[in-house]
Amino acid sequence: QINSNETRRPCGLYSATENSPREHAHRRHLSLHRHRERGKEGQVLHRSKRGWVWNQFFVIEEYTGPDPVLVGRLHSDVDSGNGNMKYILSGEGAGTIFVIDDKTGNIHATKTLDREEQAQYTLTAQAVDPDTNKPLEPPSEFIVKVQDINDNPPEFLHGPYYARVAEMSNVGTSVIKVTATDADDPTYGNSARLVYSILQGQPYFSVEPQTGIIRTALPNMDREARQEYDVVIQAKDMGGHMGGLSGTTQVKITLTDVNDNPPKFAQGVYAMAVSEDKVPGEEVGRLKAKDPDLAENGLVDYRILEGDGMNLFEITKDSETQEAVIKLKKTVDFETKRSYTLKVEASNPHVDSRFIAWGPYKDTTIVKISVEDADEPPSFMAPGYNFEVEENAPAGTLVGRVHAKDTDIMNNPIRYMIPRYTDLEEFFIINHEDGIIKTTRPLDRETQAWHNISVSATEIGRSLISFLVSATDKDEMAHRQHFHFSLAPEVANNHSFSIKDNRDSTASIFVIRKGFSRMSQDVYHLPIQINDNGVPPMSSTNTLIIRVCSCDSKDTILSCNVEPFILSAGLSTGALIAILACIVILLAIVVLFVALRRQKKEPLILFEEEDIRENIITYDDEGGGEEDTEAFDIATLQNPDGANGFLPRKDIKPELQYPMRPDLRPIGNSVDVDDFIKTRISDADNDPTAPPYDSIQIYGYEGRGSIAGSLSSLESVTTDSDLDYDYLQSWGPRFKKLADLYGTKDLVDDNS
Question: Which residue from 375, 426, 607, 722 puts its CA 20 to 30 A from 310's CA?
Answer without folding.
Answer: 375
